[in-house]
Design goal:
The chain is α+β, with helices and mostly antiparallel strands. The chain is built from two helices and six strands, in the order H-E-E-E-H-E-E-E. The protein is globular.
Length: about 120
């Protein structure tokens, strides 16, 4: 047996889906009316993180999203009026990240790995 996919299910309405489409350039993969699944063309690794906090004394975010162009996503977040509640910060474990709150109030970690 192997896990093929883990999907985060965030609470929200169509405005929340529109926010993630605009912020991350995700495509709608499925729209059932009551649930919209967004995704990217390339598959990613299956991962599940369990923790007590988010590191550096921050709250544990509901979801972490790794991006390849951190500065572009940060600029989009500002343009969308997203509440940036932490960072941007370079963390000692080799990432740059910031936390934002999506339109439903969900705490989201936007992250990119840095060169060692």
């Amino acid at each position: 047996m192997s896990v093929r996919r883990i999907v985060a299910n965030l609470p929200g309405d169509p405005a929340v889906a529109s926010f993630y489409r605009a912020l991350l350039g995700l495509d709608p993969l499925m729209d059932l009316g009551f649930l919209v699944t967004l995704g990217a063309a390339q598959p990613g690794p299956v991962q599940l993180s369990i923790g007590r906090e988010g590191g550096s004394g921050t709250a544990l975010p509901a979801i972490s999203i790794e991006v390849d162009d951190f500065d572009a996503v940060l600029a989009r977040a500002h343009a969308l009026g997203a509440a940036i509640v932490y960072g941007p910060a370079a963390e000692p474990w080799g990432v740059r990240r910031f936390y934002l709150r999506d339109p439903a109030g969900t705490l989201v970690n936007i992250v990119t790995h840095t060169e060692a």
